[in-house]
């Protein structure tokens, strides 16, 4: 049984029972004696879609969706062909199926100063401005100006092995030479491949996205959602999961050289603070190291000139972080040529109950881990306060070839500490080569600054920079440098109660130290190759 029929039976119980015909071009259509049955299967060609890529198929596609919704729900099928479209409006109870060889092609947006785009068409208008637009970037406040969008829907799906090609969408800022670039705020411009707001019971499975615009997927306030076996090869964010609950991301491949790959957020875009919670990310491959389109076509061309790509492509929680991140599990993922894993609570979010396990990373262009509790506080001034970050467990992590400038960073701010962190079975090999001058650096606090590892400048530690923490446990952790590095492996500042067991790290400097302690209280290390067993009640300034 092919994938299409399996998905059809899954979404169409009457079809599974043999009670509903499979309509094809030129056969039964809406208005026939059988058209009132639900669910049903509709071929977009029966509504006038050509699939040639040379004429606009938007009216036919939207008509098929409307017909399925009017019948109480059903499956709208895209046979092999290229369907040139502006905004496609999703409806409750409707399943879009993209067959092998089916491409939904985003029509070209209007050029700067023009009112219409390709063939005189345009994308749906962005929503009107609201009082809370200033609390997040423009793209997060608008959904209608997208290739496929839906609002206040339930029980919807997009599946099948076809392709969504966002050729005509805007990236939201000037693009590299030779690429289309539009001002996202301009009327008629498409900004995203798929955007959903306030929806529930959503399945996105098996299709691919090429050049998804500012966001390949922007899902805001979406509950009970499955993202499975997607391949996203895009020019900005891969998938943004904003204020979503009960989310399963699995078996996905994301190549995002100029922005984030998988990016949960908890913005104020809904007009109130709502947490992203009960989220699992598993069995995914995330990278920012391949030329656009080469992952989709299977040629896997790495950038030879790294000046052409930021190689961002990370799993990042934030920066929009008003509501919070709770009950988060990331497991069995591979990250390559990107910025690693980041959690950023800077707008009042509660970041709690996080488990990260079984992750391999290669060529990370930062330290593999970045956890930041800050005070940018972009939100309503009367309610926005510094959030929390606590109960974090990290285990079975291996990272090799990371650049030496930045270490793993876990940093709160004075008076607001990251709490209850456990890191076990962690191996990091970095390129090394830092000198004594870098080892002597004292990073600024940058309490209100946009969170990113480079915000502090080069790190005085080659493994972990730990500042403003309480209750830290690390066991079976090894830091290795491919070239000699003058920095200590661990730098702890304003840390209260730290227990370290079986730590392996190079001893550097004339005193042969691996740990730099500054304003540290209740520090213990045992059974380690990096330092002798020690119990430190309080250390204003000490090296071990």
Explain this structure:
The protein is mainly β. The chain is 6% helix and 42% strand. The chain has helices at 3-11, 13-16, 58-70, 294-297, 436-439; strands at residues 40-43, 52-56, 74-78, 81-85, 88-89, 94-98, 102-106, 146-151, 154-159, 163-165, 192-197, 200-205, 208-210, 215-220, 223-228, 231-233, 237-242, 245-250, 253-255, 262-265, 276-282, 285-287, 315-317, 324-336, 341-345, 350-362, 369-373, 388-402, 408-411, 418-430, 464-481, 490-504, 515-526, 534-543. The strands form two sheets. The protein has a 28-stranded mixed sheet that branches. Strand 30, helix 5 (436-439) and strand 31 form a beta-alpha-beta unit.
In short:
This protein has five helices and 34 strands.
Keywords:
mainly beta; 28-stranded mixed beta sheet; 544 residues
List the helices and strands and how they pair.
Layout: H1 3-11, H2 13-16, E1 40-43, E2 52-56, H3 58-70, E3 74-78, E4 81-85, E5 88-89, E6 94-98, E7 102-106, E8 146-151, E9 154-159, E10 163-165, E11 192-197, E12 200-205, E13 208-210, E14 215-220, E15 223-228, E16 231-233, E17 237-242, E18 245-250, E19 253-255, E20 262-265, E21 276-282, E22 285-287, H4 294-297, E23 315-317, E24 324-336, E25 341-345, E26 350-362, E27 369-373, E28 388-402, E29 408-411, E30 418-430, H5 436-439, E31 464-481, E32 490-504, E33 515-526, E34 534-543
């Amino acid at each position: 049984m092919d994938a299409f029929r399996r998905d059809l039976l899954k979404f169409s119980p009457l079809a599974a029972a043999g009670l509903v015909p499979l309509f094809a071009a030129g056969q039964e259509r809406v208005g026939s004696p059988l058209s009132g049955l639900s669910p049903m299967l509709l071929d977009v060609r029966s509504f006038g879609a050509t699939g040639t890529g040379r004429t606009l198929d938007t009216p036919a596609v939207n008509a098929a969706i409307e017909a399925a919704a009017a019948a109480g729900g059903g499956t709208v099928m895209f046979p092999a062909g290229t369907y040139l479209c502006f905004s496609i409006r999703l409806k409750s109870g409707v399943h879009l199926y993209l067959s092998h060889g089916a491409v939904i092609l985003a029509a070209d947006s209007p050029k700067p100063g023009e009112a219409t785009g390709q063939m005189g068409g345009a994308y749906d208008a962005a929503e009107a401005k609201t009082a809370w637009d200033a609390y997040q970037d423009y793209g997060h406040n608008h959904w209608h100006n997208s290739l496929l969008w839906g609002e206040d829907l339930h029980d919807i799906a997009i599946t099948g092995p076809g392709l969504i090609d966002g050729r005509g969408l805007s990236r939201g800022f000037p693009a590299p030479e030779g690429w289309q670039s539009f001002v996202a705020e301009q009327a008629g411009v498409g900004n995203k491949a798929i955007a959903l707001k306030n929806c529930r019971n959503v399945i996105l499975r098996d299709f691919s996205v090429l050049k998804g615009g500012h966001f390949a997927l922007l899902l805001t306030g979406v509950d009970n959602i499955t993202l499975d076996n997607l391949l996203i090869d895009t020019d900005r964010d891969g998938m943004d999961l904003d204020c979503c609950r009960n989310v399963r991301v699995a078996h996905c491949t994301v190549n995002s050289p100029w922005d984030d790959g998988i990016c949960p957020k908890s913005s104020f875009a809904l007009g109130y603070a709502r947490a992203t919670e009960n989220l699992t990310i598993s069995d995914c491959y995330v990278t920012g190291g391949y030329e656009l389109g080469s992952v989709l076509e299977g040629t896997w061309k790495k950038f030879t000139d790294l000046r052409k790509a930021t190689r961002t492509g990370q799993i990042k929680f934030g920066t929009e972080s008003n509501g919070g991140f709770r009950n988060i599990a990331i497991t069995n993922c591979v990250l390559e040529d990107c910025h690693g894993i980041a959690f950023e609570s800077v707008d009042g979010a509660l970041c709690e109950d996080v488990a990260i396990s079984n992750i391999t990373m290669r060529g990370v262009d930062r330290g593999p881990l970045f956890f930041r509790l800050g005070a940018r506080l972009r939100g309503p001034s009367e309610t926005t306060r510094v959030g929390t970050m606590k109960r974090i467990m990290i285990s079975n992590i291996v990272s090799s070839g990371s650049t030496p400038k930045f270490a793993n960073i876990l940093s709160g701010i004075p008076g607001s500490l990251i709490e209850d962190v456990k890191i076990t079975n962690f191996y990091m090999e970095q390129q090394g080569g830092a000198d004594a001058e870098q080892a002597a650096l004292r990073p600024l606090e940058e309490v209100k600054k946009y969170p990113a590892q480079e915000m502090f400048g080069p790190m005085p530690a080659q493994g972990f920079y730990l500042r403003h923490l309480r209750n830290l446990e690390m066991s079976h952790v090894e830091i290795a440098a491919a070239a000699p590095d003058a920095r200590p492996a661990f730098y702890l500042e304003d840390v209260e109660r730290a227990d370290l067991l079986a730590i392996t790290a190079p001893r550097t400097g004339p005193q042969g130290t691996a740990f730099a302690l500054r304003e540290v209280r209740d520090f213990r290390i045992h059974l380690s190759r990096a330092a002798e067993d020690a119990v430190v009640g309080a250390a204003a300034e000490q090296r071990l």
